[in-house]
Every structure is written in C-alpha cells, then in structure tokens.
Amino acid sequence: MQKIDIAQVSGGGQRRTLTGKGFTLAEVLITLGVIGIVAAMTLPVLNQAVNKKVRAEQIRTVKYKFTKATEKMASLGLIGPYDSTASFVAELQKHLKIMKVCPSSKLRDCWPYDTITLLDGKEY
C-alpha cells in the first residue's frame, strides 16, 4: 500500500497534509492473479464433487423406481416363474418405463466399449 500526498491545506493557524491511501496497480493485479489461480485449481474439484452427487442420485432414483415396479408386480401376483428373461421384461414394461431392450445377441450395441468406473472406484 502506498501513501501519496494529495495537497497541503493551511488555515486556522494549522497546516495539514491530505494524503490518499490506496493499492498500486501491481498489487491489485497480483491479488487478482492469485484469486484466478486458486479458482482454477478448485473449480474442477467442485465440478467433480457435484457430478458424483448427481450420479449417486440418479442411481438411487433408478433403484427406487425398479423396487416400486417389482413391488407392484408382486402385489398383483405377477412375480413368479417366467419362461424367459424376455417374458419377464415384457411384463416389467407394463409397470416401468423401459427405454431400450437389448437382445442378448446384440449387447455390444447397448453398452459402451469404454471402461466403466463405479462410485467406489472399481473399474469394469
């Protein structure tokens, strides 16, 4: 911080010096630079934390909806032996909105080829 004499005032038998105190341009720029660096380092971490929470909530929602659909099927007496997975899925679709059903012969078309990392860090 720099002290600058602005003016000298006299009157009433006294002489005073008016001073202005303020930050120099260099000090302001350095401070803004440090703030920018800290922000650049923390924002990715914050984004990652938010994405993790969003993913956990999505998984929780899917589990809840699936549980409710199967509970409804059980209350209607529809849980029981099925001839095939396809017949179970056909019945489940009546109680749960299923976007896409993947035939067992074309699973590669439904799932990504990339490595999948779960919330606990396990990779598949």
Structure description:
By secondary structure, the protein is an alpha+beta fold. It has a domain at 22-97. Helix content is 48%, strand content 15%. The protein contains two helices and two strands. The protein has helices at 25-75, 85-92; strands spanning 2-11, 14-22. The chain has a two-stranded antiparallel ribbon with strand order 1-2. Strand 1 (2-11) and strand 2 form a beta hairpin. The two termini are 57 Å apart. The mean pLDDT is 84.
Question: Low-confidence parts lasting 5 or more residues at pLDDT below 50?
Answer: none
Oligomeric state of the chains present here:
single chain
The amount of beta strand, in percent, is 15-25%
What percent of the residues sit in helical stretches (DSSP H or I)?
A: 40-55%
Structure class:
alpha+beta
Could you describe the largest sheet, including whether it forms a barrel?
2 strands, antiparallel
Shape: rod-shaped
Number of helices: 2
The strand count comes to 2
End-to-end separation in angstroms reads: 57 Å
pLDDT averaged over residues: 84
- Report the order of strands and helices: EEHH
Main traits of this protein?
2 strands, 2 helices, single chain, alpha+beta, 124 residues
